[in-house]
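Quick one: structure tokens for this chain, please?
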Amino acid sequence: MTADNLLLQALVYLTAGVIAAPIAKRLGLSSVLGYLVAGVVVGPFALNLVGDPEDVMRFAEFGVVILLFLIGLEVRPALLWKMKTSIFGVGAGQMAATTALTAAGGLALGLDWRQALAAGLILSMSSTAIVLASLEEKGLRQGPVGEASFGVLLFQDLAVIPLFALLPFLAMSGAAPAEAAGGHHGGALLEGLPAWVRPLAVIGAVAAVVIVGRYLTRPLFRFIAAARLREIFTASALLLVVAVAALMELVGLSPALGAFLAGVVLAESEFRRELESDIEPFRGLLLGLFFITVGAGLDVALLAGRPLLVGGLVAGLIVLKGLAMYAAARTFRRDTRTSATTAVALAQGGEFAFVLLGFALGARVLDAELARLLTAVVAVSMAATPLVFAAYEKLVLNRQEARAEPERLPFDEGPPDAIVAGFGRFGQIATRLLMANGFKVVLLDASIEQIDLIRRFGWRVHYGDASRLDLLRTAGADKARLLVVAIDDRDKAREIVETAKQVFPHLTVIARAFDRRHAYDLLEAGADEVERETYESALNFGRKALTALGLGERRALKAAVIFREHDEKLFRKLQPVHGEAEERYIEATRASRDMFERLVRAEMDRLTDDEDDGVEAPRLAANDRG
């Protein structure tokens, strides 16, 4: 296909997607479903506006490559360690259980055991793009469901390379399948070379990605950033992803997994947030095109000729994968709601299934008819996922229908003194205090319901996710002096603090913490000050309890002041051990608490009645009304 035809085909697909995706969203469905339906309508099996989508699909698969690069940027070593159970426990359990159940189903339908096992391994993959996009739209990307889903998807992505090595051993013929397979197994660079060269080339390519990403990209990005040419920074980021993908393709590895590796290497880089914000628009565009080409590649003739067979297989796949995922999640002590929601989210086939099916066909593991049937099953299951999730959401989660986004107000307040992220009960008090003292404040909130309510009271609140670098920049973070993070999402709060301190180091960041451990996390992320959300009110509550038990007002106030001073010292003392093993932290806390109580009691015992009467009412006096 010529470049002109390829461009025309991509333009037609994107136009169809631009029309279909908003319609799907307005109907309360996923935009992914809109893209898939658009692809079916304009594809070769329906209107056939632009012919075979294969060439565009190869281009659109770069959206998956970018997606995995962005995922890799989030996978810091600390995160991997924190999510080890989700990745290597729930992820491995899901894949093993799904493979076993689907392979058993294949045997029951008359497949040879090797074909059944290969089909089970391939169908155990889920769609990273669809799952993450759906969870993001439903507001479930952060939290236990998002963590479990991300861990399973990450394990599946990592398992692709071993599958490329394993599948040829399941070939139906005795011939060596490696050369027949082509694709990712051999690699264009290695054709004609001895077999022992291939593993060395793979190791060399991976080592090159690690070395270049760790030691050469940072000086390069630092040099570009110093020149203040954002378009060059964006071009360099895309060039990095394309170069890594091309290198992996040459040595026979998955380009998407190569991009994921590059993202992991750069996860600790100070340019991580800038890379994310620059590449994110391309990810959305190319992923949309990818979903459209998946829909266009759906064999409608096969569906029309054997609808009951395909429909039954799709339903069976969704049920079996859902049961396997639920069992794996419950085995590793995820609660019922999290397990069920994760199971529904991951109950479809995945993007890598198309790659693995083509590879298995070339390696003579599957015959052409079975490969076509499984391709249709995977595509239909991907298309059905938004519908299944919407039904589950309505019938089980009992969520309200998605509301329209509030009107986006222009940022015309002028350069702010402070930006407040999160305008709930906590953020409102801080904001009112700032504004009462003459400071100019820009307000951000991501809750549609909260914004609708607050705007009725005359507050000018802007809608948006404050972890997005472009939103912070538009809100005036480069000119503001203070960022107040007052949202009620633990992970998102840390993400906002990290983003702000990395990109806007001049900002003073004060963050709301849920508890002591969360406060430590926020300080580690770069927060200048943290405030545990219930600490001051609980301390004031305790002071009133003392007066109710007979202590004088001034003595109770002094007790609260002494308590705060010693607790602040204890907070700083325990900070170095908060990231250690749970038992070590608990042991240190218990030992420090005993000493803390003795010190407070001793200092209170030293107070005489005369000293008690002379105590001034310092900070807590302002809280006298609770």
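Residues 534-626 form one domain.
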